[in-house]
Design goal:
Strand content: 15-25%
Shape: elongated
CATH class of the largest domain: Alpha Beta
Bound molecules: flavin-adenine dinucleotide
CATH architecture of the largest domain: 3-Layer(bba) Sandwich
Largest sheet: 7 strands, antiparallel
Radius of gyration: 24 Å
Number of domains: 2
Helix content: 25-40%
CATH topology of the largest domain: FAD/NAD(P)-binding domain
Number of helices: 13
């Protein structure tokens, strides 16, 4: 009799793993609570799916064990996935920072994964909610909204909690706990910041303005765009640092990431000696932003020539070290990823198998491995799915 494998979650990791295992000849069934397969893929990257990145390093991932992701990322790389995309003649382009997006639509990636599943005669049970799981030591019994399902092997690919409107559930973590597998506390990552009311009242007037910045905290620094919104701060720089942010701590914003004091800022002041600070700085920053910095009393709108050398340096320091303490984040509603998850201590980094329960596997975002913005999370989904499929000969 064919070995039965059940995969819970028809997302990126579940679909890719299903295709690989089906093509190896296994009897694979994928269960998902949604109507559509690959729902998150379809809405990713603004509908164009940033499916990987030209530069994938373990340092682009956050985990309690930063070494865990290395083995899987090495055995199924971005080049392997790109090769598959090329086999299907899917047109794509590099946007920036090595990020690869579909030219046409994220649907191309879902169609590719579904064709791979078709080749492996993978079965699907959609609109089926997995509610609980039992094990008799040999196989598994899945309690679902469509009744009980037996399986020899179980692969959990239920993703994280971000975007609950897409049907995300905490079942993956519940299953882990049921099998005494530790779960690293979860929280929203790649998520916009909210601000305390007095600061929000002032900064929300900048809503829609984007500026290139370097944003840092004691752990990391990102050079990308910051976007002011009517709720707080967003844009790639903010999403990236949000994954490294602890509640109550400040972030530092450098509004002049490409301007050094000696070679750029001082000459700018020298050339505009008779101007107001506002008009002078308007040459390098949006005028409305400068007005807000003046309103916040971070800078004084005097005539440039009134500044002595020390005051010039102070002005530069203010613009390059703007410290803001966010009120919080927008949470799972808008987060792109869930930080934390099933502890990597409990899993084999080679196969994603649970060390203490043979035939049980966790792959994708449900695991405590979270990537940066830029295609890293999908690459983890592909790589961890591939590692898991390699466990079956
Ligand atoms: C708006 C948005 C845009 C994104 N854009 C990008 C991007 O461009 N590039 C990138 O790398 N990453 C992106 N991400 C992150 C990426 O989508 C995820 O990291 C990736 O989808 C994780 O894959 P997964 O297979 O682990 O989980 P998912 O793709 O989330 O799939 C999990 C599946 O499990 C199902 N499920 C959950 N609970 C149950 C249950 N109890 N019973 C049955 N089924 C269940 C869910 O319905 C879902 O279909 C984005 C995320 C969001 C929210």
């Amino acid at each position: 009799m064919q070995t039965k494998i059940t995969i819970v979650g028809a997302g990126a990791a579940g679909l890719f793993c299903a295709g690989l295992l089906g093509q190896k000849g296994y009897d694979v069934t994928v269960i998902d609570n949604g109507k559509k397969r690959g729902r998150k893929i379809l809405m990713s990257g603004g509908g164009k799916c940033n499916f990987t990145n030209l530069s994938i390093e373990p340092s682009n991932y956050i985990s309690d064990n930063p070494h865990f992701c290395k083995s899987a990322l090495k055995r199924f790389t971005q080049w392997d996935f790109i090769q598959l995309v090329n086999q299907y003649y899917i047109a794509y382009h590099e946007k920036e920072h090595g990020q690869l997006f579909c030219d046409n639509s994220a649907q191309d990636i879902v169609d590719m994964l579904l064709k791979e599943c078709q080749k492996g005669h993978v079965k699907f049970m959609m609109q089926t909610q997995v509610e609980d799981i039992d094990s008799d030591g040999q196989g598994f019994k899945l309690h679902t909204s469509q009744g009980m399902i037996d399986s020899d092997n179980l692969i959990i690919a239920t993703g994280g909690l971000s975007m609950p409107a897409l049907g995300m559930t905490s079942i993956g973590y519940k299953i882990a706990e049921k099998f005494a597998i530790p779960v690293v506390p979860v929280k929203a990552g790649l998520v916009p910041f909210t601000l305390h009311k007095p600061l929000l009242d002032v900064l929300s007037t900048l809503s829609g303005i984007a500026v290139p910045v370097e944003v840092s905290n004691e752990r990391i620094c990102f050079k990308e765009n910051l976007l002011f919104t009517h709720r707080g701060l967003s844009g790639p720089a903010i999403l990236q640092i949000s994954s490294y942010w602890q509640a109550g701590s400040p972030i530092t914003i450098n509004l002049l990431p490409d301007l050094s004091f000696e070679s750029s800022f001082k000459p700018l002041l020298a050339q505009n000696r008779n101007q107001t600070i506002k008009n002078c700085l308007a040459q390098i920053l949006p005028k409305r932003l400068i007005e807000v910095l003046i309103q916040l009393k971070l800078i004084n709108d005097v005539i440039v020539k009134q500044l002595d050398p020390k005051q010039q340096q102070n002005l530069y320091n203010t613009l390059t070290h703007w410290s803001i303490t966010p009120n919080g984040t927008e949470g799972y509603r808008t987060a792109e990823v869930t930080l934390g998850g099933v502890s990597t201590d409990a899993l084999s980094s080679k196969t994603m198998a649970v060390k203490t329960h043979s035939n049980l596997y966790f792959i994708g975002e449900v695991v405590d491995v979270s990537g940066w913005l830029g295609g890293y999370n999908f690459q983890w989904a592909w790589s961890s799915a591939f590692a898991c499929a390699q466990a079956f000969n």
